[in-house]
Amino acid sequence: MKTGISSIGIKLPSRYLDVRELATLRSVDPNKFTKGLGCHQIALCGDHEDAVSLGAGAAERALEAWGGRREDLGLIAVGTETAADMSRPLSAFIAEKLELSGALRSYEVKHACYGGTLALRQALEWHASGAAAGKSALVIASDVSLYAPKDPGEPTQGAGAVAMVIGAPTVAEIDIATTSWSEPVFDFWRPVGEAHPRVDGPLSLDCYKRGAWETTRARFGDDLAGLDELHALCFHTPFPKMVKKAVRFIGEQAGWDEAKASSFFEAKVEPSMRWNRQVGNSYTASLWIAVADVLSRAPSGARIGAYSYGSGFGAELLTMTATGAAPTWAAPFEQDALTRAAMDQSSYETWRVKTTHA
Ligand code: CAA
Asked: Does residue 113 carry a catalytic annotation?
């Protein structure tokens, strides 16, 4: 059975901070954040926004674009690392807002930034197996990423949500075959009760690169033959420089010279981070924002790769084919990005004092 993405909805919060404002506030050369890390803007929540409202907002947009009946949904799965409760799934908070109840399975998936992809894979496999009995799934990836004030990760913060209806592949057909890799490590984690994550930055970069290589070589072979045929290769984007380093690393493993790695990055990867640069790191939503951006411009038949990474760590490479639907999700994204309020150094400082927890 052909299965994939039937519709997409994205929701951004109502505020943002330019990383150059943050650099001035922290007495850092702005080039470190813009050129050194590749960051531009950080999406930030307003007073009544959080992972639940963002997830529900994205879901409303995806459901409207899908146009199906609520009774035709058999599953709602939410990937997040911004849990609202240790027991009650974020899907219940979101389903409450959407008034979704009845004959459907509802749950939360946690695996750091990989949780949204796992929720999507479960929905895809559920649909393809026939267990869905003709119903579709609502998959949501929603997160608020905040580091402690003055943490080196502060310029890589962000927030946002992506929702996708999974069923008939009117937007993209996702291949059932996939390649994954995992290793139990502590590279990025947030102990129970702590407001901000702890990070071993160099270890997280090593694991991210290794996951990218292992999943890509398993799919395309040690020489990465066929990778060039992709229209685009999207990545989970904690910050754009990290993605560039991963591409250089997989190129080195495959024996590419620097020019080849650089031209592959510029042609197939860099254009997919256009929306990520306006959002910052949105954890589970990050990869799917890149995929949505690429799908909004891809011709029908374009082959797209999607590399998912979640600390802890788990990695997976998915491949899909664009099926040419009108990009209903692009205008609302651009509208959110245009209408949100810019914060300055002083309003950000005040906001940080009030906002201690993601
Ligand atoms: N002009 C231009 N470039 C400059 C500069 C300047 N004035 N000053 C510094 N730079 C460059 C540096 O040379 C460096 O570039 P290279 O890496 O290419 O050498 C870059 O800016 C960063 O500089 P530092 O390494 O000194 O930065 P730092 O020590 O302040 O660390 C950080 C910043 C890398 C973001 C670090 O905080 C970090 O590792 N954060 C978290 C890591 C992370 O997000 N991991 C993601 C994997 S985990 C996951 O996936 C979950 C998730 O999404 C978070």
From this structure: yes
The Å distance, Cα 277 to ligand 1 centre, comes to: 15
Instruction: Please indicate, yes or no, whether residues 11 and 159 belong to a single structural domain of this protein.
Output: yes
* pTM beyond 0.85, yes or no: yes
Task: Categorize the per-residue pLDDT at 353 as very low, low, confident or very high, splitting at 50, 70 and 90.
Answer: confident
Q: Distance between CA 285 and CA 78 in Å, rounded? A: 11
Question: What is the reported pLDDT for 140?
Answer: 98
Task: Indicate if the pLDDT at residue 323 is higher than 60.
Answer: yes
At residue 334, what are phi and psi to the nearest 5 degrees? Answer: -65, -35
**CB burial readout 280-298, b (16+ within 10 A) else e:** bbbbbbbbbbbbbbbbbeb
Position 349 in a domain: no
Residue 143 CA to residue 240 CA, distance in Å, equals 18
Considering the domain boundaries, does residue 84 fall inside one?
yes
pLDDT score, position 354: 82
- The pLDDT, as a whole number, for residue 358 is 46
Whether residue 72 is found in the same domain as residue 24: yes
Tell me the pLDDT tens digit for each residue of 51-73.
Answer: 999 999 999 999 999 999 999 99
Provide the 8-state DSSP code for 155. Answer: G
CA–centroid distance, residue 153 to ligand 1 (Å): 7
**Residue from 22, 34, 37 whose mutation best tests the ligand 1 pocket (most atoms within 8 A of CB):** 37
* Residue range of the domain that includes 94: 4-171+328-344
Structure tokens at 304: 């797209």
Q: How far is the CA of 188 from the centre of ligand 1 (A)?
A: 14
Instruction: Give the residue-averaged pLDDT of 251-266.
Output: 97
CATH number of 15's domain: 3.40.47.10
Same domain, 129 and 47: yes
Tell me the torsion sign for CA atoms 271, 323, 329, 81.
negative
Q: Are residues 92 and 24 in the same domain?
A: yes
Q: Where do the H-state alpha helices sit in 221-268?
A: 240-254, 258-264
